[in-house]
Amino acid sequence: MKRAKHRSCSIPPLSEMVRDMKAKRRRSLKREARAIFRAGLNAVHAGEAVYRYMKIEKEKGQEYLVCGKQKISMDETERIFVLGAGKASSQMARAVERRLGNRIDGGAVVTQYGYAEKCRRIEILEASHPVPDSSGLEASRKIEKLTADARKEDLVIFLLSGGGSALMPAPAPGISLEDKQSATNSLLRAGAPIEALNCVRKHLSELKGGNLARKVFPARMCVLLVSDVIGDPLDVIASGPAIGDSTTFFEAKAHLERYGVFQEMPKAIKERIEAGCRNEIPDTPAPGDKIFKRVSHHVVANNTIALRAAYEKAKSIGCNVKVQTNSLSGEAKEVGKSIAEDGKMISGSSRKKRSPQCLLYGGETTVRVVGGGIGGRCQELALSFAIEICGHENICLLAAGTDGRDGPTEAAGAIVDGRTAKTSQNQGLDPNDYLRDNNSHHFLRQRHACICTGPTGTNVMDLVIMLVN
Questions:
Q1: How many Cβ atoms are within 10 Å of 164's Cβ, its own excluded?
Q2: Phi and psi, residue 69, nearest 5°
Q3: Is the pLDDT of residue 386 over 80?
Q4: Residues 438, 25: contact at Cβ < 8 Å?
Q5: How far is CA 359 from the centre of its chain?
């Protein structure tokens, strides 16, 4: 009787098993980070936020438009115009059409190239962001023309989201579009925050800093906003076209001087700023002006809502979660280093914990451009973080803009871990060289670390998600 042959069982070496286990853990962390980001993003889709916020109600035979706690009588409203500007404005316009349909008498909104969605009763226009162009100028004129037609019995619904300031340039008298482009470019390259950028823009514009409300008055105005600014200050979001402006020509000049660009400004801009400082031309309308008595503002989506949804998602997949801050700001590469320190500290103190640790950050950093590369604030933050945690394979970070675009790139941001910078040497890449050259995008693209979402339909600044296993 022949003895049965037994197949030999090949057991992989322990080192190989450990390597495979680590690889699976890294992939799991990245999947979870993406899921958490997606949950935050879905919660702040501008169109859905507007549709949830607006209602038509009937009461005692009368019809009302309800926006939050505000009720506007449709029977006492003669015409409805829908205007707007921002990266999310076309999605917001579609939502208003879903609610109001044929009640809308006309309108125009301007959004960034590639972000447009067709509407039936509202004209959707496209222009450049962050540097304004001639299409934005033409769109501003169309919006201005519609405001000039508004009467006291009319309702103007204005849809405002991040990017609205650049997309609706409308230069003040004596200022050309090229002048405004030059000012925007100089401030961006100097790393100026959105507050400084918008303060200067207000004092070079016909519509910003409350001037749009001046043109709409005496019609009623209802402003629906998707906030892309920390703390949701109404006078900063898209340069506050429908609210009183507390900033002055003196502050605009101070910002230009602080970032070292006043002397390089075009002659027309310097002359206008100086004339404003001498009170030779009127400043923007201040809070309390009568033109704002019939204007109401409603924030329908912001970074806090996105963070809350991300928190709930992280909790549902078994993470120990903490919102570290909802006011993230500062130089991107320095913020990346600081978050990396948080990660290394958690990694060292949580080795006995079974659940992944999740830290959430919301806000918007800046980049001071000194090199010749291409990148954005989220990618620069992520690359700086990856360098700092090199070798810590149990740490993962996702940093991305909720609008789907990080700087002048097609990426929304990046997702990195302890191997991103470590194994780059095999490709002959030095991450520090790329970081010094502000060239984070090219490095991360070669490492297959970029996140590309395309236009997302919203803009509530950035989400940063760190997971430590």
A1: 32
A2: -95, 0
A3: yes
A4: no
A5: 20
Q: Which two tokens stand for residue 222?
A: 């209802």
The distance in angstroms from the start CA to the end CA of the chain is: 55
Residue type, 20: D
Neighbouring-strand partners of residue 112:
127
* Domain match, 324 and 444 both: yes
* 458/328 same-domain check: yes
420 in Cβ contact with 373 (< 8 Å): no
Rounded Cα gap, residues 135 and 151, in angstroms? 27
Q: What span, in angstroms and rounded, lies between the C-alpha atoms of 392 and 342?
A: 13
Helices (H), 63-176: 89-100, 134-148, 164-167
Q: Say which range, 153-167, 239-253, 413-427, has the weakest mean pLDDT.
A: 413-427
Residues 225 and 321 grouped into a single domain:
no
Q: Specify the pLDDT at position 24.
A: 59
Nearest residue to 201 (alpha-carbon basis) of 140, 154, 146, 280:
140
98, 46 Cβ separation under 8 angstroms: no
Q: Is the domain of 33 the same as that of 98? A: no
Which CATH number does the domain housing residue 223 bear?
A: 3.40.50.10180
**pLDDT(244) > 80:** yes
Give the other-Cβ count within 10 Å of 448's Cβ. 8
* HEC sequence for 24-58: HHHHHHHHHHHHHHHHHHHHCCHHHHHHHHEEEEE
Mean pLDDT in residue range 179-185: 92
CB 380 within 8 A of CB 438: yes
Spatial contact of 333 and 283, defined as CB atoms under 8 Å apart:
no
Q: Give the position of tokens 């500062």.
A: 330
> Do 386 and 316 belong to one domain?
yes
40 touches 463 (CB < 8 A): yes
Instruction: Note whether 293 and 410 are same-domain residues.
Output: no
